[in-house]
Specification:
The protein is α/β, with parallel strands linked by helices. It folds into 2 domains: about 70 residues, Orthogonal Bundle (434 Repressor (Amino-terminal Domain)); about 140 residues, no CATH class. The chain is about 25% helix and about 25% strand. An 8-stranded parallel beta sheet has the order 1-5-7-9-11-13-16-19, with no helix packed on it. It has a 7-stranded parallel beta sheet with strand order 4-6-8-10-12-14-17, with no helix packed on it. A two-stranded antiparallel ribbon has the order 2-3. α2 crosses α3. The longest helix is centred in the first third of the chain and has 18 residues.
Length: about 220
């Protein structure tokens, strides 16, 4: 792939991910402390972000840097993941369109991976709806579950009971207690957060053990 192709792909990724998060060019620019004209030039393929901007963009959009360049669309799954998956106790939900595995850049909002009862660990390239999760819960979409014994990581919102580990969401976080850090693109509504709290929206909690940063 040529440098111009990478520039175009990166611009398209930023545009799509920005739209998925409901951000305008102005609001994205504000979060990155740059001008909205710079964002516009990125999305039109006229220029590319400085290399130091790539980790900031990846963290903001909750994707890998590879995903920004189209090597793994939007934090979902790609074909290479299948070969690397272990024969373990993780329940994984994947949606195919033909032979292509859809990711969060596809229209996965209409799909929900529903598991009746409790699970040990669960991953899905769409939304997750389940009972308690003994270990970790990870979704390209939203997570709606009971208590999570490990980390809860979602491209959309996290709505659950207590999270013993970290709670990370591209949307909002609504839960009981968080044993680690809480990081949300939207707002955070919890009881107690033992670690740090960072949100693009408001933070409404009774107690925060670490630092709190809100938009």
């Amino acid at each position: 792939m040529s440098s111009s192709d990478y520039m175009k792909t990166l611009g398209e990724s930023i545009f799509n991910l920005r739209k998925e998060m409901g951000l305008t060019q102005e609001s994205l620019a504000e979060k990155l402390n740059i001008s909205f004209q710079a964002v516009s030039k990125w999305e039109n393929g006229q220029t590319s972000p400085d290399i130091i901007m790539l980790p900031l963009l990846a963290d903001l959009f909750k994707v890998s840097i590879d995903a920004l360049f189209g090597r793994n669309s939007g934090g979902g799954f790609n074909a290479s993941d299948l070969a690397s998956w272990k024969d373990d106790d993780v329940i994984r939900g994947v949606i195919f369109k033909g032979r292509k595995i859809l990711s969060s850049n596809g229209d996965l909002s209409m799909f929900t991976f529903k598991v009746e009862g409790d699970v040990l660990n669960v991953e899905a390239g769409c939304n997750i709806n389940c009972g308690n999760v003994e270990g970790n819960a990870s979704a390209a979409g939203s997570i709606n579950c009971g208590n999570v014994g490990g980390n809860a990581d979602a491209g959309g919102a996290v709505t659950c009971g207590n999270v013993e580990g970290d709670a990370s969401a591209g949307g909002g976080v609504i839960c009981g207690n968080v044993g680690g850090d809480a990081d949300a693109g939207g707002g955070i509504t919890c009881n107690i957060i033992s670690g740090d709290a960072s949100a693009g929206g408001n933070i409404e909690c009774k107690s925060i053990g670490g630092d709190a940063t809100s938009g």
